[in-house]
Structures are given as C-alpha cells and as structure tokens.
Amino acid sequence: MKENFNKFKLMKKPLLVNEAGLVIYYYTNWLAASNKSQYSFDASYPGFTFSKDWLLMSIEDVFGFEKAYVDFVKKVKAESFPYLEEFFSEDNSDILNLFYIFTENDENYLPFFAGIFQNLNIFDLEYLTYERFKEVYDFCFLKYMGIEISDENHKDLKSLIDSKKKILQKDFPHLLSKLPYRDELSMDLVRSFTNTRSIYDRVFPLLDKLCEIIKKNIPLIEDDLNKHFDHLEENNFKLLRDLADQVGINPLLNKMKSPLNVYTLIIAPNMKMIQYMSEDMDFAFIKFGIFADKEKKNVGKLKLLSQYLKVLGDPTRIDILDLLMEKSYYSKELSDKLFITPATLSYHLSQLHVCGFVGAYIEGRRTYYYLRKPGFKKIIDDLNDFCKNIREENHDSKE
Predict the structure, then answer these.
(1) E strands within 219-276?
(2) pLDDT tens-digit profile of 95-154?
(3) What is the spatial distance between Cα 176 and Cα 141, in angstroms, rounded to a whole number?
(4) H-run or E-run covering 170
C-alpha cells in the first residue's frame, strides 16, 4: 500500500494579492448584507459561510480571543475603506457584480471574482502581469460558464484553457441558456471574457493601495504567523497530511514529483483550501488559514456539522453516492448515468470530495472516483460526542 503524500513546501511570505482580493470581497459582502447598518465595515465579519445572504457579525464576537488579529483586520479594513468606497461608487458596477456570482448559484462558497484572486498565488503586485491575470481569469470563467475539466491530460494550464475555449466557441448559445444566474449577472460574466483588460487596468490601482496597507500592518500579527508556521511544521506536517487524507487526494498527489506548495491565509483565517487537477499538477496547492486548526469557540458542534449534512442532503449527491457504492466510476460514466452536464457533476463531486465522502485516483488518462469512510465517520463521531452531552429529562405528565 502506498504511503500518504508527505512532500510539502511551506511558503512563509503572505500572498498580498490574495489577501487584497479577500478585503475587496469582504467589502462587497458588507455592501449586500441586510444588517450592514448595525456594523461599520471595519468592525464587521461575514457569517459562518461565504455568502452575501448571511447576516454580518461583529469581528470581536468571532475572534475576540485573538486581540492582535482583531486589531490587524480592523486597521486594514478601516484604512482600505475610502479606496473601496471610491472604487465602487460609480463606474465599476460590472466588477461589483462579479463578486455576486457563485458557482452553481451556491452562495456558501467564494464567488467568481474572489475565487480568481485565490488562484493567483502572487506574493507582490509587481508580479501580477496581465498575462497571468488573464490566464487564471479564463480558467475560472470557463468553469463558471459550465465548461468542465475533462478526462484528457494536458501538459500545462494554457493547453487546458485552449481546449476549453474551443468548446465555448462551439456551444456558446447553449451554455449561455443554461447559466443559473439572473440576466444582469450572466451578461456581466459574459462581457468580462472580452473585457478582461479593462477589468485588470481598473482593479490594479486598487490592489496597489490594498497591498500596501496589508504589508504595512503585517508586523501586528507577526507572532501569530510564526506560531502558525511552527504548528504546520510540527510532527512532519501532520495537519497537512491529515487534511490530504481526509479529502482523499493522496493517490493524485503521490504522482507529483515536486513538493506541494502550502500558503497561509490571513484575512480568511479559518479557511482550508485545496486546489489540484490531474491534468496540471503544477497548479496544485494547499491554503491554510492561520486559525484553521483551532477550535472555533463560538460555534456549536452542530453548526460545524451543518455543512456536512447539507452536502449529504442534495438528491444528486445521494445518487452519486449510490452509484459509487457499486464500484468506482470516471466522470463521463457518472454524468451519463445521471443525465447531468460534466460541469454540474464536477460541482457536486467537489462538495463530496472536500468533506471526505469521495476520493479520486488516476488510471491511464482518466480520473476515477470512489467512496471513502472518513467523512461519514466524522459525522457519526461528532453526533455521538454531541449526544453524550445531552441531559435527558423525563417530562412525561403524571396522572
């Protein structure tokens, strides 16, 4: 039996462009929140999911036990606010709308434009060329248009994008008619594909200001960052090995010749993010928020379980799990049996994958999916722990 993947390269320099993108996302989240009048931008924090429909919370209520971190975030957001307010005041409504487009219309995850920043992995703005921005932009755009990664092998990200662009040219009217977004958002998404240079030119000066603000304030959380790096390196990267095992990607990662880059997220401190694809292993990475390994003191166990239960509650995902009880399937087989598009299948598989319900392995030119126990066992164990603390009382009425 092959050993778990164990080649990690810890990147200790903050990804300023990623962090700036999250600051912009938090602002767009704050703009759309129904209770924003209760919180200033610097004092607010999104709910427990990345969704504009969740009510805002006080950042002190969420991270009050981490004073240095709260001071850092509030200072960054307060200094960023004038630039954000000016940027979104008049001419950039198309960019604002790109922050309100969620994959498959599921608002529990980062939206389109915030996701682009999380796939750039750039430390300093000077390295954010238009060519790099366009490459990642096109990759995300094609996915949101419903063009999914196939079972083909590609030497690099460019060849993957080029093959998907051919599908876009061939099937554009059909793809457009199937978009799940309201018309205004759909049109802004489509226009952005040919208007990417304008988007880059407009957003670059804002990113410049935000990166400068974040970099200036990093010393406020230097101690937290150092503790975080030390913790990740403990026991030969045990936290990261456990995460890869939970998600079930060891068979894929073991094919990598170079170490897997591990980045740190600051503005999204509880996030764990894994990106990989069998066609392009150089595009693989892990992102680990600085508090992602800490118990969330203000969130009940059932609250944390809700995302797992929601993933299991979808009828399409139940059908996928039923099929995988029979045997391992590759994506085309699954989409054909379920009569759904490859993009829709990929979306559902990603939700099952990140919870540890489904794993993947490569055989030849195909990626196969199979059932795994860790995700199901976690739900059972956590529910058992919750049950142990229930104080059952007899409330039967006495006659």
Answers:
(1) 260-265, 272-275
(2) 999 999 988 767 767 899 999 998 888 999 999 999 999 999 998 898 888 886 655 555
(3) 12
(4) helix 157-177
323 near 298, Cβ under 8 Å?
A: no
Q: What is the pLDDT of residues 37-57, one digit of tens each?
A: 899 999 998 865 544 455 788
Instruction: Quote the tokens at residue 128.
Output: 């954010």
- Cα separation, 50 vs 56, whole angstroms: 11
Contact 292, 271 (CB under 8 A): yes
Nearby residues of 20 by Cβ (< 8 Å), 6 or more positions away: 117, 206, 207, 210, 211, 214
Amino acid found at 223: D
Torsion of CA 266, 115, 285, 312, to 10 degrees: 100
139 neighbors 119 (Cβ within 8 angstroms): yes
Kindly give, in sequence order, each residue whose CB lies less than 8 Å from that of residue 73, ignoring residues fewer than 6 positions away. 42, 59, 63, 267
Biggest distance spanned by C-alpha atoms of the chain = 79
Neighbours of 106 (CB within 10 A): 14
Output the six-digit token pair for 348. 């559902």
Looking at residue 34, its amino acid is S
Q: How many CB atoms lie within 10 A of CB 291?
A: 21
pTM, full prediction: 0.82
Residues 6+ apart with CB under 8 A from 221: 68, 69, 72, 266, 290
Long-range contacts of 206-210 (CB under 8 A, 24+ apart): 206/20, 206/24, 206/83, 206/84, 206/87, 207/17, 207/20, 207/21, 207/125, 207/128, 208/125, 209/80, 209/83, 210/19, 210/20, 210/23, 210/24, 210/80, 210/83
Residues lower than pLDDT 70 in the chain: 1-4, 47-54, 105, 108, 148-156, 276-283, 295-304, 364-365, 392-399
Q: How far apart are CA 264 and CA 14, in angstroms?
A: 6
Residue 201 C-alpha from the chain's centroid = 25
